[in-house]
Amino acid sequence: MSDSYEFLTAHNIPSYLASHTEISSIVDHTAITEVKEVGDGNLNLVFIVTDKHGKGIVLKQALPYVRLVGPSWPMSPDRARIEYETNVIHAQSAKQFVPEIYFYDSERYIIAMEDLSDHKVWRTSLNLGEQNHGAAKSIGEYVARVLFATSIFGAGADAHYKGIARAINPELCLITENLVFTEPYFPSDRNSYLPENEIDAKAIIEDSRMALEMGELKYKFMTCAEALLHGDLHSGSVMVKSDAKGNEISTRAFDSEFSFYGPIGFDLGACFANFYIALARATALRRKDHADFIAGLPGELWDSFEANFRALWPTRVDKRVFSDVLLEKLLSQWKFDAIGYAAAKMTRRIVGLAKTSDIETLEPAERIGAARGVLRSAQMAIRERHINTDLNSLTLKVRKIIDEVRTGEGN
């Protein structure tokens, strides 16, 4: 691996397209009308290139460091290979839910993929108060399809073990292990929050039950290789396209560079967490109808995941000991795990590095209560899952907490 490869720029992209026949037919490099950098994420360069014929392509290049921090935090760009290979594998069982990949440049760590400019990042849509009916159901189906296909049940032993070896992703897993499961629960230089939320962050650090359960969740994250996860599935890594009434036309999951073989509940919990964060925003902005809509998303996603996994179960490779009774136990365990992982993700997005625009774009007076509601909900959820894993019941309790601590004008 070399750190000296050439980075993409708006100036060298036309010649790059011309030099690669695999993608030169996707857009006309002689008639490019716009090269727009949209890499506002934490790790990579991302450009959308369009030509005068209305065709487009996305070029995503992994840098040899974490873009959010800079060269002082080096990171192998091989994560681009992992994302490319994961997308190809996931497309085998859920093609309609991932972007089409045209080409991978292993020398410059560039993925050329389908332009989804006619879609909108789901987080952006939710922030605007929009309702995307059917998106949660589709992501539930996506998770079920790709995780079944890459699990021991869908892949069989040989393919499963070879898949684990291919997808080892130590650097990005370490980021998750530190930022999600460790740093928010101890004093850390990378933690940050509004001064008014210091009491809430301190309550997390002093919550020994949270630390214990995060240790258990982290251990499972590090050792339980159930299936090929997306690894960073949330409303910011899903694109949605809806009609004028908000009904789904297309839903796609992207940015799977954190992919690895891990616990099935992790991707599900990450989605739940981001729904609850979106719920806190809607509550802070007094968007009751939108909050009502968001409150239904965790249950909708889980129900879709469960229904699709159950539908795939009869096709499992080995039916001798992988019985229907085992499936019931697994589904219960995965929901229990998912609620725990949701609590972890909720906490890190409020006090840890790399936050969400749902909360950060609120006015400070509103942000205080929204952040407090998310943190207290996480503390509740980590305990509640031992008593009751019904998502509708859990969501009602989350909503009550968020509403009670809402701050801002009129409170």
Report on the architecture of this protein.
- This protein has 411 residues and is an alpha+beta fold.
- The chain folds into 2 domains: 13-114, Phosphorylase Kinase, domain 1, CATH 3.30.200; 120-404, Aminoglycoside 3'-phosphotransferase, Chain: A, domain 2, CATH 3.90.1200.
- The protein has 17 helices and 12 strands.
- It has a 5-stranded antiparallel beta sheet with strand order 1-2-3-7-6, covered by helices on one side.
- A hairpin with a 4-residue loop joins β6 and β7 (110-114).
- The longest helix has 28 residues, at 324-351.
List its traits:
411 residues, alpha+beta, Phosphorylase Kinase, domain 1, Aminoglycoside 3'-phosphotransferase, Chain: A, domain 2, 2 domains, 5-stranded antiparallel β-sheet, 3-stranded antiparallel β-sheet, 12 strands, 50% helix
Which structural class best describes the helix and strand composition?
Answer: alpha+beta
Mean pLDDT: 95
CATH architecture of the largest domain: Alpha-Beta Complex
- Beta content comes to 5-15%
First-residue to last-residue Cα separation = 56 Å
CATH superfamily of the largest domain: Aminoglycoside phosphotransferase (APH), C-terminal lobe
Summarize the amount of helix as a percent range. Answer: 40-55%
- Round the Cα radius of gyration to an integer and report it: 21 Å
Any idea of the CATH class of the largest domain?
A: Alpha Beta
Number of domains: 2
